[in-house]
């Protein structure tokens, strides 16, 4: 029985899938069930950071899988503890809460912000969180409410209260919102991913850091997509020379296994107390072993490579026929063309290149380790399709 037929009959209809069934991956190559080969320029939405079946990652995860797959957070496990130390050492954050997805990492951030303010100013005295228009923070009810796009605010109400939305890169509006509302935090994506690959300006990020300090609010960065080397720095905030109070991440963290993390800075390192938050699967030893491998691999050398590959894509595609703009940071790139983005993705799939859309743009999120030869081949085909 083929997967498409079974899917139509048995899987909840929430995905508008492309008509391909992937069965195998190796490095930056994917194969479908007909034996056709593709170049992966999407990484399963920024997840397969080291590509498919990376040797050191496979070794780390299978070794842990044989040893111990799950214990729960009632007990200590070694990979989780080591991963937390490595993340803190590499980021200057103080503590980590592990979970299973981006939405959960953001839920944790939201709860941390609310509790930080509740502990300091009294319960529900300063509950409001500023997020950005055109943002995306996840699919749970609270993260949908945090998402600053009206299209996400239908059908599932009532939503949790306490979110106000600021135009991206408008520091004046942010100042006004922080003044007019009892705020505990500002939550931002350094590069708006689903919103169309829109990086925040340095001025805005610096203003957000300064204003949150002035108002005793937390600066919380949603690095679910931008994190884990995607932008050419371990975390995107490192491009801006600031230290945030909270960083949420997921997608590429465990190199293909489901894992999220909420990194807590000095101000909030003791906010979560026993019983105040938790998860059964979070920090699972196999996922943690995978993430430990990924974070170790994201060294200065690989980050420099990511920036070089990014420069290559920008220089090859900017100024091309039918290209209106190209935005992004590192290997997170959005290309606005005169063509319909979904049709472009379909055309490229037909030519053996897997890409994504973000709003009206073509979006590229290749594995960070994609060999130059495959990247060149993919970019040549992308260019041909855009110019055709
Ligand atoms: C993908 C994404 C999320 C949601 O992550 P899930 O793992 O799908 O829950 C949240 N924020 C951003 C910025 C994302 O890109």
List keywords for this structure.
7-stranded mixed sheet, 388 residues, globular, alpha/beta, 19% strand, 4-stranded mixed sheet, binds pyridoxal-5'-phosphate
Molecular structure report:
- The chain has 388 residues and is α/β, with parallel strands linked by helices.
- The protein is built from 12 helices and 17 strands.
- It has helices spanning 3-10, 43-46, 55-67, 78-91, 102-121, 141-146, 171-180, 202-214, 285-297, 300-317, 341-350, 372-387; strands spanning 22-26, 29-32, 37-40, 95-99, 128-132, 163-166, 183-188, 191-192, 198-199, 218-222, 246-249, 260-264, 323-329, 332-337, 353-354, 356-358, 361-364.
- The strands form 4 sheets. It has a 7-stranded mixed β-sheet with strand order 4-12-11-10-7-5-6, sandwiched between helices. Strands 1-2-3-15 form a 4-stranded mixed β-sheet.
- α3 packs antiparallel against α9 (285-297), α4 runs parallel beside α9 (285-297) and α10 runs parallel beside α12.
- The longest helix has 20 residues, at 102-121.
- The mean pLDDT is 98.
- The site of pyridoxal-5'-phosphate has 15 residues, from α5.
- Pyridoxal-5'-phosphate binds at residues 101-103, 106, 136-138, 189, 193-194, 222, 224-225, 250-251.
Biggest beta-sheet profile? 7 strands, mixed
- Give me the strand/helix succession: HEEEHHHEHEHEHEEEHEEEHHEEHEEEH
* Secondary structural class: alpha/beta
- Choose one word for the global shape: globular
Uncertain stretches: none
Number of helices: 12
Helix-strand layout with pairing:
Elements: H1 3-10, E1 22-26, E2 29-32, E3 37-40, H2 43-46, H3 55-67, H4 78-91, E4 95-99, H5 102-121, E5 128-132, H6 141-146, E6 163-166, H7 171-180, E7 183-188, E8 191-192, E9 198-199, H8 202-214, E10 218-222, E11 246-249, E12 260-264, H9 285-297, H10 300-317, E13 323-329, E14 332-337, H11 341-350, E15 353-354, E16 356-358, E17 361-364, H12 372-387
Parallel strand pairs: 3-15, 5-6, 5-7, 7-10, 10-11
Antiparallel strand pairs: 1-2, 2-3, 4-12, 8-9, 11-12, 13-14, 14-17, 16-17
Bound molecules: pyridoxal-5'-phosphate.
């Amino acid at each position: 029985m083929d997967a498409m037929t079974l899917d139509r009959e048995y899987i909840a209809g929430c995905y508008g899938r492309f008509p391909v069934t992937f069965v195998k991956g190796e490095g930056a190559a994917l194969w479908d069930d007909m034996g056709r080969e593709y170049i992966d320029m999407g990484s399963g939405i920024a997840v397969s950071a080291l590509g498919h079946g990376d040797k050191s990652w496979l070794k780390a995860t299978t070794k842990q899988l044989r040893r111990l797959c799950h214990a729960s957070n009632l007990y200590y496990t070694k990979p989780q503890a080591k991963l937390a130390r490595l993340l803190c050492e590499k980021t200057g954050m103080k503590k980590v809460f592990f979970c299973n997805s981006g939405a959960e990492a953001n839920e944790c951030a939201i709860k941390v912000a609310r509790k930080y303010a509740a502990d300091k100013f009294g319960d529900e005295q300063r509950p409001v969180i500023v997020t950005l228009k055109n943002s995306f923070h996840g699919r749970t009810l609270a993260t949908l409410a945090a998402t600053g796009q009206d299209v996400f605010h239908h059908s599932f109400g009532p939503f949790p209260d306490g979110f106000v939305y600021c135009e991206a890169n408008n520091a004046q509006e942010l100042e006004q919102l922080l003044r007019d509302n009892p705020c505990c935090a500002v939550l931002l994506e350094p590069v708006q991913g689903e919103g169309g690959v829109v990086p925040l300006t340095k001025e805005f990020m610096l203003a957000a850091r300064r204003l949150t300090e002035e108002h005793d609010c937390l600066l919380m960065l949603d690095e679910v997509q931008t994190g884990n080397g995607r932008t050419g720095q371990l975390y995107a905030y490192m491009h801006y020379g600031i230290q945030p109070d909270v960083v949420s991440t997921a997608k590429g963290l465990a190199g293909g296994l489901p894992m999220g993390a909420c990194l807590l800075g000095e101000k909030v390192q003791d906010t979560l107390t026993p019983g105040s938050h938790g998860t059964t699967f979070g920090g699972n030893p196999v996922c943690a072993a995978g993430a430990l491998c990924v974070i170790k691999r994201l060294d200065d050398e690989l980050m420099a490579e990511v920036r070089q590959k990014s420069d290559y894509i920008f220089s090859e595609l900017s100024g091309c026929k039918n290209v209106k703009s190209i935005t992004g940071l590192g290997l997170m790139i959005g290309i606005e063309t005169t063509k319909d983005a979904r049709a472009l993705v379909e055309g490229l799939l037909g030519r053996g290149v897997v890409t994504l859309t973000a709003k009206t743009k073509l979006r590229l999120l290749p594995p960070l380790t994609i060999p130059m030869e495959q990247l060149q081949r993919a970019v040549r085909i992308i260019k041909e399709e855009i110019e055709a």
